[in-house]
Specification:
Helices cover 0% and strands 53% of the residues. It has no helices and 10 strands. It has strands at residues 5-7, 10-13, 18-23, 34-39, 46-51, 68-73, 78-83, 92-105, 108-117, 121-126.
Length: 127
């Protein structure tokens, strides 16, 4: 089990930006693909990013397209989620998790299944 801590959430006005951080004290953390998943009331759980151990990225369609970017700082054992042009529909609890399996097709990373989760960080976007 890999311990994970998310941070960086908070209250932001519509149109603003936030950087979320996912970090672990586990020395194997950089070996895992890492996904960010959000949960909002009345909505299904939604993956918003994934980055592989080799730093390959999943390109997501839908409401986060072009607005959310993920990156890894291996030296800090940290994965970031940079969010811009936030709107109230982005409100929710954002979780970071290690990924159970990955595959590649057409140059895109596919992330399937979740293993170890953090406690989440709340993002609230006001209008």
């Amino acid at each position: 089990q890999v311990p994970i801590v998310e941070s960086g959430g908070g209250l932001v006005h519509a149109g603003g930006s936030l950087r979320l951080s996912c970090t672990s004290s586990d020395l194997t953390f950089n070996n895992y693909a890492i996904t960010w998943v959000r949960q909002a009331p009345g909505k299904e759980r939604e993956g918003v990013s994934c980055i592989g151990a080799n730093d390959r990225i999943t390109r997501y369609e839908g409401p986060v397209k072009g607005r959310f970017t993920t990156s890894r700082d291996a030296a800090k054992r940290t994965v970031y989620l940079d969010m811009k042009n936030l709107n109230p529909e982005d409100t929710g609890v954002y979780y970071c998790a290690t990924v159970a399996s990955t595959s590649y097709f057409g140059g895109n990373l596919r992330c399937d299944g979740y293993q170890d989760w953090g406690q989440g960080t709340q993002v609230t976007v006001s209008s």
